[in-house]
Write a structure and sequence with these properties.
Number of strands: 13
Distance between the termini: 48 Å
Oligomer: single chain
Helix content: 25-40%
Largest sheet: 6 strands, mixed
Shape: globular
Number of helices: 22
Structural class: alpha/beta
Radius of gyration: 27 Å
């Protein structure tokens, strides 16, 4: 049961059908919101991609549609499409659409959206970045938070083909009897451009990042200058960790060179070249392409209509007779010969999606085949999401970026916290890590023992209670699903009692949860206070001080079982 709708990779267009009354409690909940019927959402990356498999509609391209409808049948009525008359009106764009901010409150929907829904009967909600409601809601809307939990972790379930192939990948990773670590680099062009990390790359990659940053400045997404000091930004922790740095941190943790590392994510900006140092340290760096056959990945995509290539074919070769005729028509040669003209670049010689930058100053519009690739990348991200949630350990290259939008790694970390809270999930503080690397910049590959111990302590702390607390402070205000505790897993002392709900196999879906530990409730209260929310009723008045005795029990040092003694000693550079 996965959640990708809250990820920046998806843009959902949701049509809401007006149903009779409009200001009543939402079924079983005392929430004065919209009494409306939800039409199955559409994923825009699939609606604009031509020729993708007709076996799946937009939503079912990623998710199990039947399960989605059944899982929410007691919460909100869902239909597969609009009635015929309303469908025709939609094609003529007769219905309004709204695009809520990622910090929209429940009042926004009742005061702004509801009147438009009443008037038009149908309203389209465009969710950019997968977030249309503030992360932390008042205590009176706690059941709305729980509804988000049910949608994210129970109703949204990848379609069977994705889950089946994901399970096969997990089985192949564990076939040797060893655990595996999932790693998401977080090296995305948009991320690097937004934070100004262009100078960490070279050549064409820097130009591509700066071009995208310039576009963001024109749209008002970025308020800063085009050229910034990337080194200072990296030291401040605003840039992703380079794969080489991640490899050195894993060595400091004691992971041996034979560790199996699964590379997650459909895009790694910089390609295979930026992964060379990490692959040199850990030869068992694998991804879906090395664990699955082309047939398996093709079956996941399904049958597709052929599209013409976005790169034209090279000019046909000329016969010897044609070349002789051209030579005869060329006339006498001047003496001396002038310098030859610049060799033209043919379109077929442009490699990949960045070939335009050699000739043009403007990036071309995406071609039909590029739109199709974008739809495919949703599948690869969904597949990697499944494998990462199941991993024995997870290491993010970039999370909690401060942009206010949810990111891929944070969603995986939140899902792991909900599903397997005892699993190893590292939450490195990139600012602290940058300071560590600055102190050992002259001998990165042969650090002294005290540096190794400092890095190990920081990372082990990030995977324990201290890391969970920091996640609640920093990640939750940006994305509720990046830290779905305590609402999704336990209850505060004065929470209303909900009858336990089980699936057909008798497994508990929700309800009947235990009381939250005090430190978790205190942390939630602190976060709510910082976001100008009313304090939890469980802690009226001043917030109590943290009890140090509750935080002293840290997880045992995980490196005891797999650490390599070579990492603790000064190594001979000539070895």
């Amino acid at each position: 049961m996965q959640n990708l709708d809250n990820c920046t990779l998806l843009q959902l267009r949701i049509m809401v059908l007006f149903m009779q009354r409009f200001t009543v409690a939402l079924r079983r909940y005392s929430l004065q919101l919209l009494n409306a019927t939800l039409v199955i959402p559409e994923i825009q990356a699939t609606t604009r991609a031509r020729g993708i498999s007709s076996n799946f509609k937009s939503f079912s391209y990623l998710y199990d549609e039947e399960h989605f409808i059944a899982a929410l049948s007691d919460d909100v009525p869902i239909v597969r499409g609009l009635p015929k008359d309303l469908r025709e009106a939609r094609k003529k764009i007769k219905f309004p659409t709204v695009s809520p901010k990622n910090t929209a409150t429940s009042d926004y929907y009742t005061t702004d959206v509801l009147p438009r829904l009443v008037k038009s009967k149908v309203l389209g909600i465009i969710v950019n970045g997968g977030k249309c409601l503030q992360s932390i809601l008042p205590a009176s809307l706690e059941e709305l938070q729980r509804l988000r939990c049910r949608v994210a972790f129970h109703a949204l379930k990848f379609r069977p083909e994705i889950r089946s192939l994901g399970s096969q990948i997990v089985g192949r990773l564990r076939a040797s009897g060893r655990p595996y670590l999932a790693y998401h680099p977080g090296l995305l062009r948009d991320t690097l451009a937004f934070h100004g990390c262009a100078e960490l790359f070279q050549d064409i990659h820097t130009e591509l990042i700066q071009y995208r940053r310039n576009q963001m400045i024109k749209r008002g997404t970025v308020k800063e200058q085009l050229t910034v000091d990337s080194v200072s930004i990296q030291k401040n922790g605003s840039c992703p960790l380079i794969p080489e740095e991640v490899g050195l941190l894993l060595q400091a943790l004691g992971y041996p060179s034979t560790t199996i590392i699964y590379l997650a994510g459909s895009e790694t900006f910089g390609g295979q070249r930026i992964l060379i140092p990490l692959r040199a340290m850990y030869a068992n760096l694998v991804d879906r392409t090395s664990l699955c056959s082309r047939r398996e990945l093709s079956d996941l995509v399904g049958p597709e209509s052929p599209l013409s290539s976005d790169l034209p074919h090279p000019p046909p070769p000329k016969s010897e007779k044609e070349l002789i005729e051209e030579w005869k028509k060329a006339g006498p040669r001047p003496r001396p010969l002038p310098p030859p003209p610049a060799r033209p670049f043919y379109a077929h010689e442009k490699e990949g999606w960045y070939g335009w930058i050699g000739e043009n100053d403007t990036e071309p519009d995406p071609s039909p085949i590029e739109f199709r690739r974008q739809a495919h990348r949703l599948l690869w991200d969904a597949l990697d999401y499944f494998v990462s949630v199941q991993a024995d350990a997870f290491f993010p290259g970039f999370h909690n970026d401060g942009s206010g939008w949810p990111d891929y790694s944070s969603l995986i970390m939140g899902h792991r916290l909900y599903q397997t809270p005892s699993g190893i999930t590292y939450r490195p503080d990139r600012k602290t890590v940058a300071t560590l690397f600055e102190n050992v910049s002259d001998h990165l590959y042969h650090p002294p023992r005290n540096w190794t111990m400092a890095a190990r302590q920081h990372l082990n702390n990030s995977a324990g209670i201290e890391g969970i607390k920091m996640s609640a402070m920093m990640s939750k205000p940006a994305s509720f699903l990046a830290h779905p505790l305590p609402e999704c897993s336990c209850r505060t002392a004065k929470s209303p009692v909900v009858q336990p709900v089980k699936d057909k196999h008798g497994a508990l879906l929700f309800g009947g949860e235990e009381d939250c530990p005090d430190w978790m409730v205190r942390t939630l209260a602190i976060v709510s206070t910082k976001n100008n929310e009313p304090q939890s009723e469980d802690y009226e008045g001043e917030l109590p001080e943290d009890d140090p005795s509750q935080d002293t029990q840290q997880e045992s040092d995980r490196s005891d079982t797999n650490k390599s003694s070579e990492q603790d000693e000064e190594m001979d550079p000539d070895d």
